[in-house]
Amino acid sequence: MKDPFGRTVEYLRISVTDRCNLRCVYCMPRKGLPWLPREGLLTYEEIREIVGVMAGLGLKRIRLTGGEPLVRKDLPHLVELLSTVSGMDDVGLSTNGVLLGEMAAPLREAGLDRVNVSLDSLRRERVEELTRRPGTLERIMEGLEAAEDSGLRPIKVNVVLIRGTNDDEIEDFARLTLRRPWHVRFIELMPTASNLKLSAGSFFSCQETLERLRALGALESVPGPRGNGPARYFRFPEARGTVGVISPMSHAFCRECNRMRLTADGQLRPCLFGSLQTNLRDALRKGEDLVPLVRETLRNKPESHELVRGSCRGSGGLIALSQTGG
User: Fold this and answer.
1) Cα–Cα–Cα angle for 111, 147, 179, nearest 5°?
2) Could you tell me the CA-to-CA distances from 87 to 51, 56, 80, 230 in Å, in that order?
3) Domains along the sequence of the chain with CATH
C-alpha cells in the first residue's frame, strides 16, 4: 500500500473501545465523554475481516488500542483471531497497564507479541493526580512485571512529558533502562480540545529531554527495539534497555508515517488528527467490497499533520485522543 507521497503503509492501529478506566489529564476530560453505543462498535469478527482484507493489500502489523483496550471483554479472543491472519507478522497492544497484571499471560498465549504501557510518573501521588484515579501506580507496575514474566517483547514504557509536573523525573525513568530490559520513550504533549491550556503552557520538547539525558552519561544512538513507531532511540553504556524520544510537535516525523487507524466504530482514518475518515463498518455490514474504500483512504492520506501548540485547529475537532485510539 503506497500513499500519494510514496510512503509504504503496512501498519494499522485498531481502537477496540473509546472507553477508559482512567482520566489522564492530557487525554480525556475528568467526566469522560459520551461513549459510542455498543451496537455501533465493530465486533471482533468484523475487525478480523477488515484486517484480512487489508492484509491482502500489504498490511503486516497491527496494534490494539483504545480508550483502554483491556476494558473490552475477552480481548485475548480478538488477539487469537488476528494473530492467525495470513501475512500478519506482529500483533501489539497499547495499554495503561492497570489490568495487565491479570491479562498479560492469556494475551501472550493468544498470540500477542509485545506491549506498550503508559506511565507518566514513578511517584504514587503524582500518578494518581495525573490519572485521576487512586491506587494506579501499584497496578501498572504489577502489569509491567507480568508482561515481562509472560515473555512479551519488547516492553515499551510511554511517558508524556508535562513541564512542571513530571519533567523532574526524566532521569529516574532513564535509570530504569540500566537494570530492566524496558524501552522508555518520552513523548511530546499533543493538543486536543480538552487539553489546550495544558499543551500550550506545559510543553516540554524532546530536544530538552535529550540534553537532560546526556547529562547523565554517554548516549549512543541505536536502532532500538522492533516496532513501527517514529521514536529515535539511544542507549547508555551497559544498559539493558533504551531511552527514546517521540517528537510530534518539535520535529515532525510525518514523512516516515507508515500507518492508518481504525476506530472502534469502524472508521478508517489516514491520520490520527484531521477529519478525514472512511466508514468501513456500514460497508462491511452491507456486504460491499472494502478494497476500493481502503485505497480511497490511502489516496487521501495527508503529507503531514497540522498541529499547532495551544490550538485545536489541526486536531480535526478531537476532544480527546481516546476518540481515535491515540
Assistant:
1) 135
2) 10, 8, 14, 23
3) 11-323 (3.20.20.70)
Point out which residues pair with 182 in neighbouring strands.
Answer: 155
Which run of H or E residues covers position 115? strand 114-118
CB 105 within 8 A of CB 99: no
Going along 188-275, which residue ranges are E strands?
Answer: 220-222, 232-235, 242-246, 259-262, 267-269
User: Counting Cβ atoms within 10 Å, is residue 133 exposed (0-12), middle (13-18) or buried (19+)?
Assistant: middle
What are the helix (H) ranges across the chain?
44-55, 75-83, 100-110, 124-131, 136-150, 170-179, 196-201, 206-214, 280-285, 291-299
Overall pTM > 0.70: yes
Report how far residue 152's alpha carbon sits from residue 107's, in angstroms, rounded to the nearest whole number. Answer: 9
Of 284, 271, 226, 230, nearest to 12 (Cα)?
Answer: 271
DSSP 170-193: HHHHHHHHHHSSEEEEEE-----T
Q: How many residues does the chain have?
A: 326
In sequence order, which residues have a C-beta less than 8 Å from that of residue 216 and are 6 or more positions away? 171, 174, 175, 236
Averages of pLDDT over each 10 residues, the chain, 326 residues = 94 96 90 91 98 98 96 98 96 98 98 98 98 97 98 97 97 97 93 74 92 95 82 95 89 80 96 86 98 97 72 59 68
The angle formed by the CA atoms of residues 302, 157 and 320, to the nearest 5 degrees, is: 45
Distance, in Å, from the CA atom of 235 to the CA atom of 12, rounded to the nearest integer, reads: 28
